[in-house]
Write a structure and sequence with these properties.
single chain, mainly alpha, 71% helix, 0% strand
């Protein structure tokens, strides 16, 4: 998102608000300020901006910098009071705050009642740090009324509980640490600076499925660590098996209506299995899982919106992988709620980009040249160098490939150097630059030779190249070297990260 100067965090926060959230904020703000409040005027001024522009705001509002910080905090406070967070941690923290207020006011009996309630909720939902805090508070508030015999008995039970909570948290942290180790090594391998699959296992051994765990969260973290391990070692069959176990574990909690069934974890387990299916070309299974994912509902409207957008992204990806490009593009045109794109792009930018990316690939596969260039422009409008490099480079590559598909070879000598120069700001790798330079020299007579050279490069390249600017370049090259339609060539690798 372009901006002129200063931080655009306040702009992004305001434009992420729903209509209801904006209305609630204004009611909240009026409780603390006058109707003509400068803070509300600043809020309205930023709301009306279509792009962040700070110079005019500084001229209009005296003390703009301080106002900006105060307004940011006011919006966060209104969202907190408005109940945007409806998870167990937020509920427990609210109980904790009420306990402290009641203690301050001398209502110890009621504070003790709420402390027990908070402790039971944190214990049931395995929020260890809050469980520990409530347990200590419960002990400190209760001990004043105990006899000597009661004190001796309850102190022993207290420290037994503290020890068990500590053990559970330590175990969960151990598996979380393994997750991060495996993920880091996976990235090192992908970028050509890590270990091969053979000696990777000697460095950090994988946990066993049968390794006992003390808590649901510990088991969840363990299964996630095993899944990440097999992704890191490139063992896609075992990664699929691990993803299946994660999926079954979360589904069992969900069907039991367990308090530990978390919507985000349930949906993530489905998404992890979908991506594992892509790696093994189990596209029909991925499609069934995608339907299951979108049927899984949360109490949060925004969770359900994100889920629906992800559903479109995976659907387009599967259609691409199955060669059903025309059907996929038609599904997007017919069913995608474009109002959703306008309203929620700032909240779900990365998910929106995934949807647009695969729609762009479907248009590209169908040779809809005009639509491809329109979609490239739309995609690049919502990208920036900080967190969307992958998508921006994807669009630039597709721009070049579309010209080649249209036999516009005469534009390549000018277009490709401009692309290379532009993408230097986006971290263009040496390998990517080499690919572009080969495409720059392509013409109708040497096309097959250059495509075969690129194919050889891709075969010998490190695994990260399969994510080369979002498009499976290997498949695109094969359509010409093997004289087949793109729709006849199922990608050699999955096309989702």
């Amino acid at each position: 998102m372009p901006r002129t100067t200063g931080s655009d965090d306040l702009y992004r926060l305001i434009h992420s608000l729903t209509t209801d959230e904006k209305g609630y904020f204004k009611k909240f703000a009026l409780r603390h300020s006058q109707k003509e409040s400068k803070h509300l005027q600043l809020f309205d001024a930023i709301s009306k901006q279509t792009e962040f522009e700070e110079a005019s705001l500084k001229k209009k509002f005296a003390g703009y910098v301080d106002m900006k910080g105060y307004l940011f905090e006011m919006i966060l406070d209104s969202l907190q009071l408005g109940g945007i967070l409806k998870d167990v941690i937020a509920e427990c923290i609210k109980i904790w705050q009420h306990v402290q207020i009641l203690k301050t006011k001398g209502l110890i009996k009621k504070a003790l009642q709420l402390t027990r309630q908070g402790y039971e909720k944190a214990h049931e939902c395995e929020v260890f740090w809050l469980e520990m805090a409530f347990r200590k508070e419960l002990f400190n508030m209760s001990r004043l009324s105990w006899s000597l015999e009661e004190r001796e008995k309850n102190v022993a039970g207290y420290f037994c509980d503290i020890q068990l909570i500590t053990q559970k948290e330590t175990e969960a942290n151990k598996y979380h640490r393994l997750n991060q180790e495996y993920h880091t090594l996976s990235l090192k391998r992908d970028y050509g600076v890590g270990l091969s699959g053979n000696n990777f296992s000697h460095q950090t051994p994988v946990p066993s499925y049968t390794e006992p765990t003390l808590s649901v969260i510990g088991e969840r973290m363990k299964l996630s660590a095993i899944d990440m391990y097999y992704h890191a070692t490139g063992d896609e069959s075992r990664a699929y098996e691990a993803a299946k176990k994660m999926y079954e574990f979360e589904k069992k909690l969900y069907l039991k209506n367990s308090p530990l069934s978390i919507f985000e974890k349930r949906v993530k387990s489905i998404r992890v299995l979908i991506i594992a299916c892509f790696s093994l070309h189990k596209y029909e299974e991925a499609m069934a899982l995608n339907r299951e994912m979108v049927k899984t509902k949360s109490s949060s409207h925004l969770h359900n919106i994100e889920n629906e957008i992800m559903h479109f992204s995976y659907n387009n990806c599967i259609m691409w992988a199955l060669g059903k490009h025309e059907e996929g593009e038609q599904h997007y045109k017919t069913n995608f709620p474009h109002k959703m794109m306008e309203q929620y792009v700032s909240r779900f930018q990365m998910v929106m980009l995934e949807v647009q990316k695969f729609n762009l690939l479907l248009q590209f596969s169908n040779k809809n040249t005009t639509e491809v260039f329109k979609s490239i422009a739309n995609l690049q409008q919502v990208t920036d160098k900080k967190d969307t490099t992958y998508y921006y480079k994807s669009a630039e590559l597709l721009k070049v490939l579309t010209h080649i598909d249209a036999n516009n070879y005469d534009v390549l000598p000018t277009l490709v150097p401009a692309v290379i120069k532009h993408l230097k700001n986006y971290g263009l790798t040496k390998f990517e630059k080499e690919i572009f330079l080969q495409l720059k020299n392509m013409n109708s007579s040497n096309r097959k030779i250059i495509l075969n050279q690129i194919l050889l490069k891709l075969k010998d390249a490190n695994e990260q190249i399969w994510l080369f600017m979002a498009l499976n370049l290997y498949t695109w090259c094969r359509q010409y070297t093997e004289n087949k339609k793109l729709s006849e060539l199922v990608p050699k690798q999955g096309v989702v990260q």
